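Moderator note: this is an archived Q&A kept for reference. The question asked for a predicted structure of one protein chain; the sequence and the answer are reproduced below.
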Amino acid sequence: MFARLRPRPQPQALFTTLNRRTLVYIKDGSLHARGMKKDPSEYMTSSTGITYPGDSTTIKPIKDLLGQNYSIPDSLALQVLTHKSFAHGKKPFNERLANLGRQFLRVQTTEYAVSQKSSQPTAIAGNNFDIDTKALELMSSTAVLAQICKQIGINKSIFWKNPNTNQSPERSGENTVCAKTVDALVGAVLMYHGESKAAEFVRQHFLEGENSVLTLMNQLYKRN
């Protein structure tokens, strides 16, 4: 007989709900309203202090290392330098390049190590097939590749967000990001120039010379 009456919303409850959901505390103690657009400078500036996409000096360490023989487009070089933690993943990042380069670099490192001449009784046709498994792992480890990244100056140009700036490179994730950037660089050369040229690049820059993984491996073994 009488229409069912719907209860009216309680203003106080509504106010409380909105109040809880719209204001968000950030780590630095500042208060932000959820849903509001952030200043691009907040997330487009890397932990290294460079605002994306940087300038000509940003990709210079990569261009200098690659030279004319292994050069890649600037856009690809920028992707190599961009970690997935940067800008909420809205810019092309290096994850897939790193996965590709990591596998290729490990294969090239193993082949190179095995091909070294050995006089050990376990050698086959004079080749070093008895190389220690730990040594193989260390040659392409995070510690070694991170050191290479720093020696050639690429680490200063990486776009990433470091959530733990007060911690060591090992604990903050900096070394992992640096190592992944080296893997991504190898992946970019492989994708752009092909397997033969990429193998030549790896041998010239990471297996021989001042950035040799063999040299750095020996240094790490002595340190430990």
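Archived answer notes: Residues 95-115 form the longest helix (21 residues).
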